[in-house]
Structure formats: C-alpha cells, structure tokens
Task: inverse folding
C-alpha cells in the first residue's frame, strides 16, 4: 500500500469536517454543562421546574409530531403545512372559548367548556388537514419528491395568511380555565396544574393512537399502506381512504395539541404554527420518522432539551439571556440529527 | 456470430499483466454474504463474461468494481493498483466505464448532452474557465461535441436523434446511448451490465456485434454480465460463473458449457447427469 | 345528465367557498379602491372595481372548469345543458356572496371574522338596498357562471378573442399607476387622458384596447405559418443579429427606465432588482443543481450584516468603516466560506431533508443575529444603523438602480455561461440521477459545493445592496419569508430559466410593490401561486426545456411535439448505421 502515494485521496475531507463540527459542538455543550453546574446558579427546584415544563412541552410536540410521522410513514412527504393545521384549529376555537366565557360557562362548567373547545379545535384542524390532502396533495401522488414539498410550503403560507385575513393579525389570548390554574403536589413535587393536565392528556392520546394503529382493522390497513401502497391496494385496501384517515388523525391530534399548547404559552396568532410545527418535525425526525413511538420519544427529548439546554449548556459561558436561544438550540438539534443520524432513535435504516 | 475472432489472446488465466484483478473479494450486508472470496481476472484486451443465476451477486460485484459499494474484505487492482475505497468518479477517471442493468440515462437531457456528460472526466476546463468562456474552454467544448458525435455514430445512433430527449429514444437505442456515454470517458475497461436485456433477437445480434467491434476498434477490455447464453457464448473469450455469491467455474465458453457445476447451478441438481 | 347536475352542484359549492374566502380575507374591501374600468358614460358615477370583480372572476373560472370536462359516463353534453350548468354554478356562488353580505351587514360575526362588517355588505349590494342588491348579486353571479360556461361552448376563435380582450383591459386597468406615469413622463399626456380617467380605463378606450389586442392576436395566429417559415430561413447570421438587436434594445430600455418612470416606480424597480439577484443566485442552487435550499436568506443576511459591520461607523464592536465598494470583496469571500460551511454538512442529504436542514440554518442565522448574546457585535434587535450608501450612487432609487442592474446582468451572465458549459451539464446530470452522475465521472461533492458557493456569493451581493440602499438593518428583515419569496418567484417563472427569474420577480415582487393594496395579500397570493403552479404547471411559466422533460414523466409521447419528428417515423433499419 505504500506504493500508492500518487493515487487519488481516499479520506473524505467533508466527512472529517463534519465529525470535527459534531465533536466540537458536543465538547462545547459538555464544557458548558460543567461550567453551569460548578457555578451552581440554579437550585434543584429550578432544575425540577425546567424538567417538568420540558416534559409538558415535549408531550405537546409529540402530539404534533405524530401528524408528521403518520403522513411521512405513508406518503414519504413532509407535510410542511401541519403547523398551520395546528394553528387554524386553535385560532378558531379561541372564539368559541371567548363565547363560552362570555356566556359564563367557563366559570360554571369549566371541564365541559374545556372539552367543547378541544372538540371544536379538533374538528377544524381535521377538516383543514383532510381538505389539504384532497386539494393539494392527492393530485401530486407519484410526482418528484420536491413537488409535494413545495406545494406544502405554499399551502402553509396560504393557510397562515388566510387565518390572518379571517381573524386579523393581532395576538390574542385564551380565557383562563380555572381548574387548570395553580399548583398540584405529586410525589412531593409541586408542579403547575396545567403542566400536569397537558402531560396526562397528551400521553393518554398517544397511548390511544398506539393502540388504534396496533389493534384495529383501520390501523392494520394504515400499516399495510405504509409498507407498500401497491400491494395494499391489491389486497383490497382502499388506499385513498386510508391516507385520508391518516390526515384526519393527524389533524385531530394537532387540534388537541393546539389547545394544550396555549395552556402553556397563551399566545394565539396566525404565525403560531410555524415554530411548533418545525419543532414537532424535528421531534419526529429525532425519534425516527415514520415511527409512532419514536415521535413520542423525540417530542419528549426535544421538549426537555429546549427547556433545560439553554440554562444547562449556555449559561455556563455567561451568555446573556440564554433562553432567547432556545429556538436556535432546537434548530441545531434538527440540523445535527438530520446530518448524523437521519434515521433517528428508532427509525429504519433506510437509504437516506 | 463469427465477428469477434480477430486476435489470438493469451491462454486462459495465464495473463501476466491483467487489466483488472480481484483478490478474495467479499462483501457482506448484515448477515448476508453477497460475494465470498471471489478471485477474478480480466486479461488485457479480452472480452470476459460474468454469468450466473438471478441473485448470484453479479451486479453487486460490478458495483464494487465501480466504487459504488466497498468490499468488506479483499482487494481490487486496476492496472496493478488498488482501487478499493475510491469513489465512483475517481474510478471512472482511472479508466473504468460502465452501463447499468436498468438503464440510467439522464432522460431529460438530449442524447448528445448525455454523451458529453460522459466526457466530463477527460475535460480540463475549470469552472471559472467556463464562466469566462475562455477560447481554450470553447475549443475543448467543440472537441467534446465532435467526439460525442463520433461515439454516437460508432454505437449506431443516427445524427438526427442527437437533440432528442434521451428518454424519448426507443429502448434499444437507449442501451446504445448508455454505451456511448460510458465510452466517452475513454475507458480502458468497459463494464456492461446486461447490455441485451429486453432486446428483440435482431437487436441482440447487432449488440453482440457491436461489443466485438468496440473491443477491436477501441482497444478495450470488456467485462459483461449477461443472461442471454447466445450472446455470452458468441462474444466472450472467457467466462466466469457465480452462484450464491461464489465463483463456481471459470474457463473458455466450451469449458464452461460442459462444466457439471454450472449446469447444476442453472438447471438444478440432477440435471448434470441427465 | 344527473352526473352533470351533481358536478355543477359540487362546483357551485367550490365557487361559493372561493367567494367566501375572497370576501372574508378582506380582498373585496381592499381591492375596491382600485377601479379598473370607468363606466361613467353608462351608469352615473359607477365603475368596475377590482374588489367586486374578484369573486365574479373566481366564479367564471370555477364554472369554466365545471363544464370543461364532460362527465365520463355521459356523451359530451350539448351546449344548452352546459350553459345551464354554468348558470347554476354561478348562481350558487352568487347565493354565497349574498349570504356573506347579510352576515356582514348584521355584524353578528364581526368579533370573529374581522372583515365581515357593513362596508363589505355595501360593496356586495353595490350600494343598493338589501333586497334589490341581493337579487342583482345573485344575477351577476349567474351571469359570471354563464360566461365561464360560454367560454367552453363557444367556438375557440371567439373564446380566445374574449379572453384576450378581457385580460387586456384588466391588465391596463391594473397597471394604471405604472402606465399613466410612464405616458405622462414620455410627454404623451394626450394618450393618457384618452385612455384613463379617475385612475381607471375609460369605457371607449377599453373597447378599443380590447379590439386592438384581439386583432393583434388573431393576426399573429393566422400569420404564424409564415413566421415559422421565415424563422427557418432566419437561422444563422440574421437570427443572431436580430437577437443581439433585441438584447441591445432591452438594455437601452433598462438604462433609461428610471428616468421615464419616476422616483416611486424606480424604487419598485430596485426592489425587483434585488429579488432578481436573489432569484438568480437561488436558481443556481435549486434550478441548476437541484438542491432545495430554504435557508437562502442566510446569505442575504450575511451580505447585509457584513456590509453593515465593515462600513458603518455605528458597528458595535469592530468598525473599520470601509467604503461600500471596498467592503464588497470581503463580503463575497465571507459569503463563499459560509456557503461552503452550510453546503458541506448537507451534501449527503436527500432532497426533502436538505430543504429542512437549510431552513434550520436560515432560522439559526436569524435568531443568532437578533440575540442578546451577539448584540455586542451585531447590534441585536436594534440592528445596525446608519449604514453608508454605496457612493457615488447614494440612496436615491433612480441611481442605486444602476449598480443593482449591473450586478443583475453580471449574475445572469454567470448563470448563463455556467449553464451552457461542462459545469451546467454536470449539474443537470446530478439533479436527474445523482448516483448515475457519480458513476459517469462527476464529482458530485465538488459540484454541489460549487453551486452553494456561487449561490452564496450572488445572494450576499443582494444583501449588500439592500443594506446600502436602506441604510439600516434589523434582524427581522431576514426572516424565512425572503427565502420563500425567492423560491416562489423562481417557481412561477420556471426553475432553471434566467428569463423566468426576471418575469417571476416582476410579477411577484413588482406587482405587489406597485399596487399597494396587494401588499397585505402578498404572501397569501404567493402561497396560492406555489400550490397552483405545482398542481397545474410545475415547470413554471417559462420552463427550461429540461425541467419540462423532468416534470412530465408520464407524458413522454407528447414531448416530441413541434418541429421534431416523433419516434415512430424516424425509425430506420439499423443495419445501415452500425458499421462505423
């Protein structure tokens, strides 16, 4: 082998560069964590707070991520407009919530009112998702991969600015649901009630979805279609119908997720779907896109990272207002995962 | 079927200076061994065939020769030097050209442009030269166009199809075009992956003749994978047989034809004695 | 028959939904400001305004689609049922509009739907009482539906004439602010007064314009055969001459344009120019190399911020205060380095993942630039201000127009030279089939990085001129919408096509800048454009030849249409050609 000095090079500089960057980021993060912990600026209660809010946020991301993962699992397309499906349901249900508040129902029957609001959001999100599939995506099945992606980007803009045109461009807030306020004590930890409710509701829904996909006939049909559309069609499965159901489920989950999300961040406007949408996509990829359990894991991981990492990793360097950079951390995670492990935690090792 | 006998090649396997030599090439995908310990030689100036039943690992072997896959172990030497670990474009530059079993032309480019892309590695124009449209670059472009036209003529594609989209050519012509594209890189060794697959008998005869002509006119060594036994027997000077990822026979067409192991691989156990 | 009825009912609902959408997002109110056709001579003081016209146009299109394709199980429907179907679709649209008018008038929904207020009802009822207004509205809807259906039923020549005449008047009405200024600046006040009155086309002028357009189009059609034949003969020296002459003419026109159109329109032109520059750069990455980059704004930001830091006296940490032109080389070098750094990680990613990763990079850039962390270097949310102008051009749109134009021409030349060279071929091959390109000898790593680097250099130039033109930069100017905007104009124009980029920028950036009312609906329209183009014409308005071939996989037989002989007729015995 010594004689081959004049041969073309075999070490790929790009690969080397990538590992250098990846390693560098890990090292920076590790040193940051060390510095933060040695400084001891945050108490144990602080960290508990970060972690609990991370889990609550993560479970919302997971719900939205399921919409991405289900659609990707079946159509191999990134439904870029899924964030807007989330936004539209939440924004529309806002007015129902206000109406119920004005009618005094939120005060008298808070749980019923909460459920009504959720139902409205689910219905609207589902309708949008199904319409989107029918109008914008179905005619493009089988087109080159970038075509549906660009369509989805267009649909996303269209929905955003339709919401702005319909409901105005201001930032709105949901009325408060009294039982969700205050703190609850669980296992000796004092936790904000809304975070508990959000986490419990999200986890329950995820379990429900998992059972649905694993145990029911429709769920089996969904899995069959995601394995191979043509074979599924030959087995007598109505592929169009299954795809429609998939979008509907994604929409329903996004609707709930929206109402849960505003319990954590009470800001409703036409742009509110963008960041949670991208983050939920990140979560889906992190867990292994196409994988339902992966989406849940990915969501939780991302939520935790977002809540903890700015303080843990950046504060140690004395960076001013590290929380401002939490979105940058989410995007960095997105970039790193896609580059180094595009199959995620649980994804099949496909040819990426 | 007699067109190929032009020179007297050296004795089988006894080539002192082979153009390609594979030593103990093994590739695994997880638990599956697709190629096991394959020793293989293409003597200079010969037409060698690689045959075997479906799934025998022929295309996998090809893909290792062209750098699209990396062997798990073993060595591949081209012109005496190892090419394991080089990327496909580097291997093209060294002088190995290939075609694909399922034709992979650039369908939305013109026929002429497809061949000119094939010439890419032999062009020296830097990107900024193209940017400034330097006279030398333009001259090179013109030469490339000439060469591409010659090659189209050589493989038998008429001049008037050169501005058509490659995907609009009839199937047989697409195969010819793929060969022209591979030839454009001035290969010393040409790898043809089932060049007559899907062709009618008339086209197959022409393709067989073309393969012989190419070797003689361009001084090529040719390695082909082929299923059509008439083609294999008509054109090859040596044949290697793979089965289940292993080499089971090697020799002249006559030797291989009468080899019991080969007959068994193709027709199943018992056929050899029948 | 029932199939047609069912189809019309469905399309009636679609028409209704479209009308409701247009009304509820507020387009009717906003665009009512723009009168297109002045009808003073017919009905005292009335005119056709864009706002009211929009839902009617939507009805025309939907009704047209409804009857265009005969239902499969029917024999092609006769004209009368089709016209009736159109009428039905239109009437349904009208009913929805009437419903919208009542809801708006009552104000019950105005706390939710911000545009469902009384003014909308007034517009929809044409200022009349609810009763007659409603009847008229439904009637007009039905007429619109009828027109849509008639465009299918009537002979093609008449249809084409109607469409051409209608579009011409619409265009002249829309471009009134632009055309009237030009006419006046050219000293053609007479013409201007003849055509326009009170910001709209006058009825006689409209009729005349329509007639001229129809005559021109019909004349061109019948003369087409002759033209094609002369076109054959023109090939060679004279064709080149004609092309150069046209090019020269265009260049002269571009050079004198700011003087003709005045300050405000020059400002629009510079804005268009910046997006042409961005579009040309992104076109190299997306259109040529096939890498869907959604974070292109990052380079725009790099260009703007590095000019800001290098030239502004107010740059927080490092302020060498270079002149604009002195900073430019450093800016380009920096952009290329960042282009390579963004390019390297995404090399092995598949198309859609690449898009998301680049989007991530774009967002990271925006967040970092605006963060408190980098405030000491980049000014944080306050940005950097003031940034010196690009002397000697200053900030006046009439003069900064020229360097932007020059760089647009330069970028176009770069793109054209590369497209028609070894590099362009390698990109084309790579875009179509990456591993086949690699196996053909193309170093795809190098060519991807080259595309990123050149795209970055051009994008940062746009950013540099943006900051010098505006004189101040904020992180919010560099959001994802810039990337999307640029992508939309490439897609509208036709990916991979340089002329397409220019047309796309004129339509998607120029029009909304020109017609202020459009500003609020710009992104809504972009979204609609992206979806519609992908559904109906993914290769864009002016497709490059190759794109068209790529995107119409299923229609290979049609591809040879035109002058090329189709495959079956060209088949010849191969024996003759096989001997070299």
Result:
């Amino acid at each position: 082998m010594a004689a081959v000095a004049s041969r073309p090079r075999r070490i790929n500089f790009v690969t080397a560069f990538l590992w250098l960057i990846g390693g560098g980021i890990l090292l920076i993060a590790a040193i940051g964590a060390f510095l933060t912990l040695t400084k001891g600026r945050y108490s144990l209660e602080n960290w508990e707070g970060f972690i609990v809010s991370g889990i609550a946020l993560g479970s919302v991301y997971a719900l939205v991520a399921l919409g991405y993962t289900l659609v990707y699992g079946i159509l191999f397309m990134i439904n870029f407009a899924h964030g807007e499906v989330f936004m539209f349901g939440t924004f529309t249900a806002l007015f129902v919530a206000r109406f119920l508040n004005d009618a005094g129902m939120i005060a008298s029957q808070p749980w019923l009112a909460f459920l009504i609001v959720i139902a409205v959001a689910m219905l609207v999100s589902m309708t949008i998702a199904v319409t989107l599939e029918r109008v914008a995506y179905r005619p493009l099945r089988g087109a080159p991969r970038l075509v549906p992606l660009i369509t989805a980007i267009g649909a996303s803009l269209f929905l955003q600015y339709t919401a702005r045109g319909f409901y105005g461009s201001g930032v709105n807030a949901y009325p408060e649901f009294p039982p969700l306020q205050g703190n609850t004590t669980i296992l000796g930890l004092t936790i904000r009630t809304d975070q508990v409710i959000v986490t419990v509701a999200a986890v329950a829904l995820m379990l429900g979805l998992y059972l649905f996909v694993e145990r029911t006939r429709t769920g089996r049909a969904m899995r069959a279609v995601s394995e191979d559309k043509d074979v599924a069609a030959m087995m007598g499965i109505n592929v169009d119908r299954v795809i429609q159901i998939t979008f509907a489920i994604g929409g329903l989950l996004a609707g709930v997720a929206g109402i849960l999300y505003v319990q954590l961040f009470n800001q409703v406007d036409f742009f509110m779907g963008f960041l949670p949408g991208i983050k939920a996509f990140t979560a889906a990829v992190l867990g292994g896109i196409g994988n339902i359990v992966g989406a849940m894991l990915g969501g939780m991981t991302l939520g935790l990272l977002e809540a903890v990492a700015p303080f843990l990793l950046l504060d140690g360097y004395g960076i001013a207002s590290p929380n401002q950079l939490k979105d940058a951390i989410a995007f960095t995670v997105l970039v790193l995962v896609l580059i180094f492990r595009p199959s995620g935690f649980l994804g099949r090792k496909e040819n990426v | 079927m007699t067109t190929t006998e032009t020179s007297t090649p050296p004795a089988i396997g006894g080539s002192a200076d082979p153009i390609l030599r594979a030593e103990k090439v093994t590739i695994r995908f997880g638990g599956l061994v697709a190629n096991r310990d394959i020793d293989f030689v293409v003597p200079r100036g010969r037409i060698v065939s690689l045959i075997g039943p479906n799934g025998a690992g022929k295309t996998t072997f090809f893909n290792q020769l062209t750098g699209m896959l990396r062997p798990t172990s073993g060595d591949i030497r081209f012109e005496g030097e190892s090419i394991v670990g080089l990327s496909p474009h580097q291997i093209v530059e060294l002088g190995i050209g290939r075609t694909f079993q399922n034709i992979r032309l650039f369908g939305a480019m013109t026929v002429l442009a497809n061949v000119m892309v094939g010439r890419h590695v032999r062009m020296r124009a830097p990107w900024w030269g193209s940017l400034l449209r330097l006279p030398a670059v333009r001259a090179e472009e013109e030469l490339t166009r000439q060469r591409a036209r010659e090659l189209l003529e050589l493989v038998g594609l008429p001049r008037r199809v050169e501005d058509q989209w490659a995907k609009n050519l009839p199937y047989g012509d697409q195969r010819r075009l793929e060969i022209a594209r591979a030839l454009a890189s001035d290969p010393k060794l040409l790898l043809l992956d089932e060049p007559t697959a899907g062709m009618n008998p008339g086209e197959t005869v022409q393709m067989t003749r073309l393969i012989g002509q190419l070797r003689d006119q361009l001084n090529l060594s040719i390695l082909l994978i082929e299923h059509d036994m008439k083609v294999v027997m008509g054109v090859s000077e040596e044949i290697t047989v793979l089965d289940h990822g292993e080499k089971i026979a090697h020799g002249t067409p006559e030797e291989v034809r009468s080899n019991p192991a080969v007959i068994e691989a193709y027709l199943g156990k018992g056929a050899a004695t029948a | 028959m029932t199939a047609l009825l069912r189809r019309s009912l469905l399309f009636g609902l679609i028409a209704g939904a479209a009308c409701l959408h247009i009304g509820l997002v507020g387009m009717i109110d906003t665009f009512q400001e723009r009168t297109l056709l002045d009808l003073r001579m017919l009905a005292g003081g009335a005119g056709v305004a864009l706002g009211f016209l929009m839902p009617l146009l939507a009805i025309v299109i939907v009704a047209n689609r409804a009857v265009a394709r005969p239902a499969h199980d029917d024999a092609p429907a006769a004209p009368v049922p089709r016209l009736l179907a159109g009428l039905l679709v239109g009437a349904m649209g009208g009913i929805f509009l009437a419903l919208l008018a009542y809801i708006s008038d009552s104000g019950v929904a105005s706390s939710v739907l911000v545009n469902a207020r009384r003014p909308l009802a007034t517009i929809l009822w044409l200022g009349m009482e609810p009763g007659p207004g409603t009847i008229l509205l439904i009637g007009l809807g039905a007429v619109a539906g009828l027109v849509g259906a008639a465009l299918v039923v009537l002979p093609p020549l008449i249809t084409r004439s109607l469409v051409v005449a209608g579009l011409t008047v619409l265009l002249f009405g829309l471009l009134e602010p632009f055309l009237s200024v030009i006419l006046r600046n050219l000293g053609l006040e007479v013409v201007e007064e003849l055509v326009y009155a009170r910001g709209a086309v006058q009825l006689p002028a409209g009729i005349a314009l329509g007639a001229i357009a129809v005559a021109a189009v019909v004349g061109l059609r019948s003369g087409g055969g002759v033209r094609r034949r002369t076109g054959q003969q023109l090939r060679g020296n004279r064709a080149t001459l004609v092309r150069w002459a046209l090019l020269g003419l265009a260049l002269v026109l571009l050079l004198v344009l700011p003087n003709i159109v005045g300050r405000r329109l020059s400002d629009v032109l510079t804005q268009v120019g910046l997006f042409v520059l961005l579009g040309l750069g992104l076109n190299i990455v997306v259109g040529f190399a096939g890498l869907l980059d959604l974070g292109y704004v990052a380079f725009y930001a790099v260009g703007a911020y590095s000019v800001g830091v290098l030239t502004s006296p107010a740059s927080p940490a490092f302020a060498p205060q270079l002149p604009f032109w002195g900073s430019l080389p450093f800016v380009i070098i920096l952009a290329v380095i960042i282009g390579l750094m963004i390019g390297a990680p995404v090399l092995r990613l598949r198309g859609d993942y690449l898009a998301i990763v680049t989007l991530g990079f774009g967002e990271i850039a925006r967040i970092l630039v605006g963060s408190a962390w980098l405030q000491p270097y980049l000014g944080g949310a306050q940005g950097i201000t003031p940034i010196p102008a690009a002397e000697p051009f200053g900030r006046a749109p009439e003069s900064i127009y020229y360097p932007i134009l020059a760089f647009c021409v330069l970028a176009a030349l770069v793109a054209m030279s590369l497209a028609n060279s070894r590099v362009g071929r390698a990109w084309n091959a790579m875009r179509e089939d990456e591993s086949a390109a690699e196996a053909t000898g193309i170093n795809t790593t190098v060519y991807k990085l080259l595309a990123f680097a050149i795209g970055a250099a051009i994008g940062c130039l746009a950013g540099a001129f943006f900051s010098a033109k505006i004189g101040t930069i904020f992180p919010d100017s560099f959001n994802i919408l810039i990337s999307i905007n640029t992508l939309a104009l490439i897609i509208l124009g036709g990916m991979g096509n340089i002329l397409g980029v220019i047309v796309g920028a004129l339509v998607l950036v120029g029009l909304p800048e020109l017609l202020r009312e459009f500003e609020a609906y710009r992104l809504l329209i972009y979204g609609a454009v992206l979806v519609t183009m992908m559904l109906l014409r993914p290769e864009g308005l002016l497709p490059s030849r190759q794109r068209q071939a790529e995107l119409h996989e299923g229609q290979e037989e049609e591809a040879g249409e035109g002058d090329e002989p189709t495959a079956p007729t060209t088949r010849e015995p191969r024996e003759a050609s096989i001997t070299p």
Remarks:
- Chain B is about 35% helix and 20% strand.
